[in-house]
Amino acid sequence: MKVAAPLQVLIPAVVILPLAVVLPGLCHGGGWDLIGAFAAAALQPSFDPIVLASLLKGLGVTVGVALLSWSLSLLLGLVLGLASSRLVWTTLIGGALPAELLRRLLALPRSIHELIWGLLLLQVLGLQPAVAVLAIVIPYSALVARVISDQLDALPDQPLKALLSSGSGGPAALITAIGPPLLPGVISYGGYRLECALRSATLLGVFGLGGLGNELLLTLQSLEFHELWSGLWLLLAVMLSLESLIRTLRKRWGLANRFGRRQAGVGRRGQEILILFALLLPLLLAIAQNLGIDPAALLHWQPLPPMDGSNWQDALALPWGRLISNTLWLTLLSACLAVGGAPLLLVLVAPWPLGQQLLRLLWALGRLWPPPLTALLLLFVFQPGLWTAALALGFHNLGILGRLLLEGTETCSGAPEDALHSQGVGPRIALLYGRLSALARSYLAYGAYRSDVILRETVVVGMMAGTGLGTQLQESLSSFAWDQISLLLVVYAALTLVGEDLSDRARRRLL
Fold first, then answer.
1. pLDDT tens, residue by residue, 270-291
2. What DSSP character marks residue 3?
3. pLDDT on residue 268
4. Which of 92, 234, 271, 498 is at a distance of 20 to 30 A from 34, taking alpha carbons?
5. Residue 189 confidence (pLDDT) above 90
6. DSSP H helical segments within 312-368, as ranges?
7. CA 432 to chain centre
8. Which of 55, 54, 457 is nearest to 232 (CA)?
9. What percent of the chain clears pLDDT 70, i.e. is strictly above it?
């Protein structure tokens, strides 16, 4: 027997059953009044001019850091992606060894979360705006390079071979053969990374690197919920505007791939992209100047305290088994809540006319609300630990996966669902077997990729909710135990690289 495809997307939601059993025992009941005040304040945000001025200033810093880091990581990632492509090196020198070496080298920076990079750079460079930009650029560049090199190597090589056989040089043949088919993927992924950069810039602000995230943390800690919601609604407006802009550009640039208009469409897209970046360059320079980013200051490093060899024994004696197992359990629980929760909620609200609109709002809040702040909010009523951290991380990723799933149901054909309706099938079953059936494998494939991302993000909520490698990393950073920090980074990088490999295998099997 084999589970039907639409039911496969609901299997991870089974984690809700043990969650319902465990949560009552974790509830200490001391903060439900605060949760109620927090929810009520959503309808009464503060309009104090002083508060709004401070929030807008922080929002400007966050958006500026996001734009700078996104632009630099996209440019650097494109160069590194070309340099780590097997197709490129095979065409130029007849072998792919340099690509293999660079791929393995880039695996390390992308395996470490941008928050860890930010905390490490903070120790070396001190508190300056460039730290937040570099913390995002380092892992994002490696991630972009991986995606671009994979897209390049997956392209059919027949056009390239035809150009080479006709006497074209290697570089010219590469540009002509791989440029047009690669461009749509780069545009689409670049838009996604801009959204991620905005979330990462907000997250880094929560941990003291400036911007709106810092304002949100201070208002939450001081229980100023009206001011907190003013910042959240501002951030939500920016995020939704950004998503709308990216969706519009994708539709505009994606339609030209059909009906034999590929070359003309690519030329038009290329011209518009060049114009867009020409307009973006002076804006980025102005942002860097307003943020006070000084490239020369990056050359002045603060010396780190020396690592005493006698302390390595204490570092090795840490409870590694418990730390690693908690991190893996946190990843699994969060991934199940996010992957299974999105289709379950969508099926439950299908008959309700306003249900999808409420889901859009819920998932938008999940995407914009940084996981550590969700963990702090949950600590008002739940004890710190694995399940509290899983709820915080699962809610954030539920927003991302839910948006993806809802967009998929809107773009796929509704004929199977209509056919089921005409036969008297209820709206929930019709949605499940009519639309979700066609999306099941691709959705689960993206869920496998998202699980890899969740593994990286466990360090974020671990610091707040007291579980996994994240809580130990916070303790080691606060005590400047660099021997422990070094081992933690090695273990964390190894886990994320193994998780990356497993998610790749799962996606290949599903697709």
1. 677 777 778 888 888 898 888 8
2. -
3. 63
4. 234
5. no
6. 312-316, 320-348, 355-368
7. 27
8. 55
9. 89
Contact (CB, 8 A) for 404 and 338: no
Q: Distance from CA of residue 226 to its chain's centroid? A: 28
Per-residue HEC secondary structure of 369-412 comes to CCHHHHHHHHCCCECCCHHHHHHHHHHHHHHHHHHHHHHHHHHC
SS3 of residue 306 by DSSP: coil
Please give the structure tokens belonging to residue 302: 């603060």
Asked if residue 76 has pLDDT above 60, the reply is yes
Return d(Cα 362, Cα 403) in angstroms, integer.
Answer: 10
Stretch among 48-62, 158-172, 293-307 having the lowest mean pLDDT: 158-172
Per-residue pLDDT reduced to its tens digit, 139-183? 999 999 988 888 887 777 666 667 666 666 667 666 666 767 777
Reading the block at residue 378, the tokens are 């949950």
Nearest to 386 by CA among 455, 324, 465, 471: 465
Name 453's Cβ contacts closer than 8 Å, sequence gap at least 6.
Answer: 397
Q: Which amino acid is at 317?
A: A
Nearest to 276 by CA among 70, 59, 138: 70
Instruction: State the Cα angle at 103 between 97 and 109, rounded to 5°.
Output: 150
> What pLDDT does 504 receive?
82
Q: Distance of CA 154 to CAs 250, 417, 450, Å?
A: 21, 34, 21
Phi/psi zone of residue 27: left (φ > 0), alpha (ψ -120 to 50 degrees), beta? beta
Q: Are 332 and 397 in contact (CB under 8 A)?
A: no
Q: Which two three-digit tokens encode residue 373? A: 């702040």
pTM, to two decimals? 0.86
pLDDT at 111 over 70: yes
Q: Does 202 score more than 70 pLDDT?
A: yes
Token readout for 328 is 């893996």
DSSP helix/strand/coil, 180: helix
Bridge partners of residue 221, in order along the sequence? none
Q: Is the distance from CB of 219 to CB of 91 less than 8 angstroms?
A: no
**HSE-up (13 A, CA, CB side) for residue 218:** 15
* Residue at 221: amino acid letter: Q
CA distances from 433 to 196, 343, 352, 420, 441 (A): 32, 12, 18, 8, 13
Are the CB atoms for 88 and 99 separated by under 8 Å?
yes
Average pLDDT over all residues of the chain: 84
pLDDT in tens, 206-255: 887 888 888 998 999 898 999 999 999 999 899 888 888 887 877 776 54
**Which domains does the chain possess?**
1-33+310-511 (1.10.3720.10), 53-297 (1.10.3720.10)
Closest CA to 339 of 287, 401, 285, 291: 401
CA gap 449, 204 in Å, rounded: 23
